[in-house]
Specification:
This protein has 107 residues and is of the alpha+beta class. It has helices at 42-51, 79-83, and strands at 6-10, 32-36, 59-66, 71-78, 93-97.
């Protein structure tokens, strides 16, 4: 299979805001990450995930809600591109970080 483990994290929390901010270094070995909120910290989170050992080429899928279309849209980008600020997303959006994103092309 593509994924044997997953975690759902709150991307909104920062060290200054919480006694228990996400420890992105713990996420290196988790197959699938779902990150809710925190779109304004998207670049920082991607950088931290890469520093923690995730592959910059790993696909990330952003699932965006488009109020105009009243339906979700999806944007796929490599983690390294996200870390460089190249992924243009509209909040609200959630992120799915994992190889299973590649399966989307088969659907």
């Amino acid at each position: 299979g593509f994924s044997g483990s997953f975690a759902v994290l709150n991307g909104h929390l920062e060290a200054k805001d919480s006694d228990h901010p996400p420890d992105w270094s713990c996420c290196a070995g988790i197959d699938t990450l779902v990150i809710l909120r925190g779109n304004e910290r998207c670049v920082e989170i991607a950088e931290e995930l890469i520093q923690a050992g995730r592959d910059p080429g790993e696909p990330v899928m952003f699932v965006e809600e488009s109020p105009a279309a009243r339906s979700p849209g999806a944007l796929e980008s490599p983690l390294g591109s996200v870390a460089r600020g190249e992924a243009k997303i509209r909040p609200p959006a959630l992120r799915v970080v994992c190889g299973v994103v590649k399966m989307r092309r088969r659907w």
